[in-house]
Write a structure and sequence with these properties.
Chain A: It comes from Sphingomonas dokdonensis. Chain A: Pfam families: MetW. Chain A: This is Methionine biosynthesis protein MetW. The complex is a heterodimer of chains A (about 210) and B (about 375). Chain A is of the alpha/beta class and about 210 residues long. Chain A has a single domain, classed as Rossmann fold (3-Layer(aba) Sandwich), CATH 3.40.50.150. Helices cover about 35% and strands about 25% of the residues of chain A. The longest helix of chain A has 11 residues, at about 95-105. Chain B folds into two domains: about 10-180 and about 290-370, Alpha/Beta hydrolase fold, catalytic domain (Rossmann fold), CATH 3.40.50.1820; about 185-280, Orthogonal Bundle (Rna Polymerase Sigma Factor, Chain: A). Chain B is built from nine helices and 14 strands. Chain B has helices at about 125-140, 155-165, 185-200, 215-230, 230-235, 255-270, 275-285, 320-335, 360-370; strands spanning about 10-15, 20, 25-30, 30-40, 50, 80, 85, 90-95, 110, 115, 145-150, 170-175, 310-315, 340-345. In chain B, the strands form four sheets. Chain B has an eight-stranded mixed beta sheet with strand order 1-4-8-5-11-12-13-14, with helices on both faces. Chain B has a two-stranded antiparallel ribbon with strand order 2-3. A two-stranded parallel ribbon of chain B has the order 6-7. Chain B is globular and about 65 Å long.
């Protein structure tokens, strides 16, 4: 089974034997890969009951729940990594969810589609319509993506929250692309984050 | 395990010497247990699964009930090729103590007097039921359970297992259940008990050999039965439809279909259940509060065990609603236990766990590793 490109990057950078919480784990593809290839103790949170059933059917431990609500029930620093792949832009309060990730996990992987990719820009500039692309296939009224963001938006947000970046990877199609001009060239971004004490105190006020 | 070992098979009954120390302070001795086993215990004794039954159910989970001739109450879940696959697992289901299907309860003979216990029978708890099951497993030579599975009151026993015997169970499935009885749960049970005790035939529980408190027990069952269904389910099934008549009679006959249905449920129940057992088992459920048994913190109940857990709730179950399952999930997370949880959609309320649900089957099969 081949993993989606962003998940493959995350899987490659998770330390073996880690405790991992995959938030928005879907049918558990990444969790299964982490369990099988990295001997990780992987747990998942997923909103769609059909996906939960599929993941449990793979022998994975997955809880049906909503990242915006149910992350609050997890103890502090209970995982080595909290992972949020292609889910940040669907959260009602992405800032609070990011805070929860860094509270629950010592580190967090966050991946999201970059709304400043040149194809998105062209679509909006020349078409004058909300872009419908490979990574953003839904129309404005039926998209689950309610908080679009760009690579530069995310970097600015991390700076303002005092969150340290330990790694960043960018994808164009399924190929990795350069970090320079990523805001223009990357369809997809993956960040490895570590909360600092300063960041935690800010986040805990939320 | 040899084929002619009388400990194994359908319609088994054993009298164990005990004594079984009870949460209420007394002791039960001897301990009678009626049970059934399905499948074959592996040579390493590592394939045993315990099924825990609900309030008014019995040990006939997958085998025909010899009294009624009806098939087992959970044949879509337990049997050859089913999620709890009896070709693969050695499955045990025992009638809980306090009940009336062959295990020690108020209707069984008190060896001290030669008469039925009646209300002299000690008040028991969910944990007492679980300890009695452990005695049975000792008798069967089963040290460790591959899984313990239950719905409703069976789910309470399943939760109690890893809390009481942390090293004896590897996996726990809790369906449509809760870690404690809410005020509303207790309230409904109290209505049922008062209905039984208000029946003049109850005679302080000393009715054996006389007419039974049928009217009281039937009313108790009618009230309870409403809590097992959803409002939408009742509306869909009965609405305001009249029973075998074209117009209201302006009397107190069962004009409405829903009345006729409930009356039937009440009367049918009296034929198969003992009124005193109903009092004892509802009391055990009301006393159940797993957190209270562990210093007030539910997570503490699960700190000793290495078992993995799966919880399932149903969206229209208002008796043990999803939030009860979620609070168990949170406690398991806090204890670091591996836990899966899913809320399934069903129009049938609490009863959904007893009905054929492909989604529920899939989750349980997946969790137990028997998915095809």
């Amino acid at each position: 089974m081949t993993l989606r490109a962003d998940l493959a990057i995350i899987a490659n950078h998770v330390a073996a034997g880690s405790r991992v919480l995959d938030v928005g784990c879907g049918d558990g593809a990444l969790m299964a890969a982490l369990r099988d290839a990295k001997q990780a103790d992987a747990r998942g949170l997923e909103i769609d009951p059909r996906n939960v059933a599929a993941a449990v059917g793979r022998g994975l431990s997955v809880i049906q729940g909503d990242a915006d609500i149910d992350l609050a029930g997890y103890p502090d620093a209970s995982f080595d990594y909290a992972i949020l792949s292609q889910t940040l832009q669907t959260c009602r309060a992405p800032d609070a969810v990011l805070g929860q990730l860094l509270r629950i996990g010592r580190r967090a992987f966050v991946s999201f589609p970059n709304f400043a990719h040149w194809r998105v820009r062209l679509s909006l500039l020349w078409g004058g319509r909300m872009p419908v692309t490979r990574l953003l296939p839904e129309r404005w009224y039926d998209t689950p993506n309610i908080h679009h963001l760009t690579v530069d938006d995310f970097r600015a947000h991390l700076r303002s929250r005092g969150i340290a970046v330990e790694g960043a990877w960018f994808l164009s199609g399924d190929q990795q692309t350069r970090s320079a001009a990523a805001n223009f060239l990357a369809e997809h971004a993956i960040f490895l984050l570590r909360g600092t004490d300063a960041a935690s105190s800010v986040l805990h006020r939320d | 395990m040899s084929a002619d070992d009388q400990r194994f098979g359908l319609q088994r009954h054993v009298t164990l010497p005990g004594p079984l120390p009870l949460d209420g302070g007394g002791r039960l001795a001897p301990v009678e247990i009626a049970y059934e086993t399905y499948g074959t215990l592996a040579p390493d004794r590592g394939n045993a699964v315990l099924i825990c039954h609900a309030l008014t159910m019995d040990q006939h989970v997958a085998g025909a009930n010899p009294r009624t001739g009806k098939p087992g109450w959970w044949t879509q879940m337990v049997g050859p090729g089913r999620p709890v696959d009896t070709d693969h697992f050695f499955v045990v289901c025992a009638n809980v103590i306090g009940s009336c299907m062959g295990s020690s309860g108020p209707a069984t003979m008190d060896p001290a007097t030669g008469k039925p216990f009646g209300m002299i029978f000690p008040v028991i708890t969910i944990r007492d039921m679980v300890r009695a099951q452990a005695l049975l497993l000792d008798h069967l030579g089963v040290d460790r359970l591959k899984a313990v599975i239950g719905g409703s009151m069976g789910g309470m026993q399943a939760l109690s297992w890893p809390a009481t015997f942390p090293d004896r169970v590897e996996a726990v499935v809790v369906i449509a259940s809760a870690a404690r009885h809410s005020a509303q749960n207790i309230a409904f049970h109290e209505v049922g008990r008062q209905a039984v005790m208000a029946d003049p035939h109850w005679r302080g529980g000393d009715y054996y050999g006389h007419e039974v408190p049928a009217a009281g027990l039937a009313v108790a069952r009618m009230a309870a039965h409403i809590t097992y269904l959803s409002e939408a389910g009742l509306t869909q099934k009965f609405g305001r439809k009249l029973q075998a008549r074209d117009a209201k009679t302006f009397g107190f006959d069962a004009d409405f279909q829903v009345e006729s249905y409930l009356r039937y449920q009440g009367i049918a129940f009296v034929d198969r259940f003992d009124a005193n057992s109903y009092l004892y088992i509802t009391r055990a459920m009301d006393y159940f509060d797993l957190a209270e048994e562990h210093g007030g913190l539910l997570a503490s109940a699960f700190r000793q065990t290495r078992a993995r857990f799966a919880l399932i709730s149903f969206d229209t179950d208002w008796l043990y609603p999803t939030r009860e399952s979620r609070s168990i999930v949170q406690a398991l997370n806090a204890a670091g236990a591996p836990v899966s949880f899913v809320e399934l959609s069903s129009p049938y309320g609490h009863d959904a766990f007893l009905l054929d649900s492909p989604e529920m089957n899939r989750v349980v099969a997946g969790f137990l590793g028997t998915a095809s």
